[in-house]
């Protein structure tokens, strides 16, 4: 099988990025992916409402249950005590985000819903 020079260039770039991500995970335990098409203002708004989400009590976050792997709430794992994740089922739809918002904030949270839908 022949690899074109374009594909080879992409492969080399991908392998370099994988190495950088692995190094960051090994040294810091995390990494930040920067995408230049997202403004810092939008990034800050989304991170602000996500912080508000993770500040909710565990009992509230644990209501986010889904049969699909990694979509529901994952937290308080015995071997990984500082890890939490929350997935939003159908996150690319207004209805999916609204359903999730109503689950986390039964009285509503327009700011969260709005910024996640941007």
Cα Rg:
18 Å
Low-confidence runs: none
Q: Which word captures the global form?
A: globular
The oligomeric state of the chains shown is single chain
Average of per-residue pLDDT values: 91
Beta-strand content bin: 5-15%
State the separation between the terminal residues, measured CA to CA.
43 Å
**SS summary, helix count:** 5
Question: Strand order of the main beta sheet, please?
Answer: 1-2
Residue share in helix: 40-55%
- Tally the beta strands: 2
Structural class, please? Answer: mainly alpha
Q: How many domains, as an integer?
A: 2
The SSE string, one letter per element, is: HHHEEHH
Major sheet size, sense and barrel closure: 2 strands, antiparallel
Features:
118 residues; mainly alpha; 5% strand
Describe the structure.
The protein has 118 residues and is mostly helical. The protein is built from 5 helices and 2 strands; from the N terminus they run αααββαα. The mean pLDDT is 91. A hairpin with an 8-residue loop joins β1 (73-75) and β2 (84-86). Strands 1-2 form a two-stranded antiparallel sheet. The protein has helices at residues 5-28, 40-54, 58-61, 94-104, 110-117, and strands at residues 73-75, 84-86.
